[in-house]
Write a structure and sequence with these properties.
Elements (H helix, E strand, L loop, with lengths): L31 E3 L6 E3 H32 L2
Antiparallel strand pairs: 1-2
This protein binds zinc ion (ZN).
Zinc ion binds next to loops.
Length: 77
């Protein structure tokens, strides 16, 4: 999957708004990220877990589309 990049947004657990601005800073495991919208604190480790899970799904979706394209080509004669 060269040249294909996947972006996963970090989202506030409480109000579901994007934590994009917050993500510009560097955080380490155990940090809490304050939401700019609702000012609740999000656990960094939990956010990364969710993002990693979403990332996996994105890659899986992409892979499935590519496989379907290949199959369609294979059967087109
Ligand atoms: Zn929020």
């Amino acid at each position: 999957m060269k040249g294909k990049s996947f972006t996963v947004e970090l989202k506030c657990f409480f109000c579901d708004c994007s934590l994009e601005g917050v993500a510009e800073k560097e955080y380490v495991s155990g940090d809490m990220l304050e939401c700019q919208n609702c000012h609740d604190l999000n656990d960094y480790d939990a956010l990364i877990d969710v993002a990693a899970e979403e990332g996996k799904n994105l890659v899986a979706d992409y892979a499935q589309q590519e496989i379907e394209k290949m199959l369609k080509k294979a059967f087109k004669k």
